[in-house]
Amino acid sequence: MCIYNQPYTISGIEVKRESDKIEIRHLNKPGRKYQLFVGNSPNKQALTKLAAENETGLFQLDLPTSEGPYYFFIRGEDFETNLFGERVVQLEEAINVRDMGGYETADGRLTKWGLLFRGDQLSKLTEADVKLLERMGLKTIVDYRSEHERTLNPNREIGTVKVNVHADPQSSFSEAAANAIDLHEENAKLVRQLEEGKVEAKYINGRGENVIEDYRELVTSEAAQKAYSKFLLACAETDNAPLIHHCRGGKDRTGLGSMFLLLLLGVKEEEIIQDYILTGIIREERNHYKYLLYRELTDNEDYLAYLMAMIETRREFIKASIDRIYELYATVDDYFVQHLGLSRDQIEEMKTFYLEEG
To answer: Which Pfam families is this protein grouped with (predicted)?
Structure first.
């Protein structure tokens, strides 16, 4: 396993992992006393093990993924960080499962670690992957995939999961190649749709206008309304946590679900956008591989630009859906109450449960 630079955890902290070795750096001036505490529970009071201390703020530890998950906090002479963990869960056969903890709200609170997760499909998990998710205490899975997708690639059974929610928002372009059996068939189908004129000419470029239109449509469509209401109501039942919501690749349907949840919790818009963009960073190598496969099927540069726009996570994509909410409703709470069926009491209870003081 190569060195894995974990995406943003909390402000002032960097995390890197290389196989079973982990490096944690506190981005502060050296010469002060730093103590690193570690444990397997996302409860700060349970992290009583002093793993290391020094005056540099740089910690290197042997922490096997087979014994995770791990959570940390750092104590200094006159400060103490919030609890934090590894953003991307280190699974062998799912690359985009990640913890939604550590995001800052407009009022200075942070989303808690170890309660809310987003991801790609869980159909190819290894035994080690399943055991890690069970150690995380995963209770609920919200699956945005269509019935056909779930039949083709059923999720692995996870012993701790007691609730499964099927919530298909019927995203038009997310479903474009969902019926394909494998990656080659998926790519061939997408190129064939372009060659046969099944995609409007105005979209065949790199601007991603079809993505923007779909994201705006998902804010208001009846199918999406039902799906994302089911998701948020599952989150409102806090006994369902820890909970993961996912689709096939963890980009579009899950990206919208994550935006809705973080917006409901009051997370800063820029944090929401960065959470969405992370999928593109995590899938950079995979997306380059897909580009090379596309090139084997077509040399039409407009086709290639269109295909790549569909798998990218551009800020303007998720921003379009956020802007659509503000176009239609005076406040985000109005959207969640009037359109998605939550009560204002449920929203406040969710904030109390899923947020902590920063």
So the answer is: Y_phosphatase3 (PF13350)
Q: Region of 75 please: left (phi>0), alpha (psi -120 to 50) or beta.
A: beta
* Angle CA 115–121–125, to nearest 5: 90
- Cβ 152 vs Cβ 181: under 8 Å: yes
CB 2, CB 19: distance < 8 Å: no
The C-alpha angle 154, 155, 156, rounded to 5 degrees, equals 120
Q: Looking at the domain that runs over 1-86, which CATH code has it been given? A: 2.60.40
133-182 pLDDT, tens digit each: 999 999 999 999 999 899 999 999 999 999 999 999 998 766 555 555 66
DSSP string for 137-191 = T--EEEE-S-HHHHHHSPPPP-TT--EEEE-----TTTTTTTT-SSHHHHHHHHH
For the chain, give every domain's residue range: 1-86, 88-357
Taking 90 as the threshold, does the pLDDT of residue 46 lie above it? Answer: yes
User: Does residue 143 contact residue 315 with C-beta atoms inside 8 Å?
Assistant: no
Q: In this structure, what token pair is assigned to residue 74?
A: 């750092």
DSSP for 58-96, written as a single string: EEEEE--GGG---EEEEE-SS-BPPPEE-SB---SS-S-
Ramachandran region of residue 43, left (φ > 0), alpha (ψ -120 to 50) or beta? beta
1-86 and 88-357, same CATH topology: no
Q: Across the strands, what pairs with 178? A: none
In CATH, which superfamily holds the domain spanning 88-357? Protein tyrosine phosphatase superfamily (3.90.190.10)
Half-sphere exposure of 161 (CA within 13 A, CB side): 19
Contact 150, 253 (CB under 8 A): no
pLDDT tens by residue, 203-242: 999 999 999 999 999 999 999 999 999 999 999 999 999 9
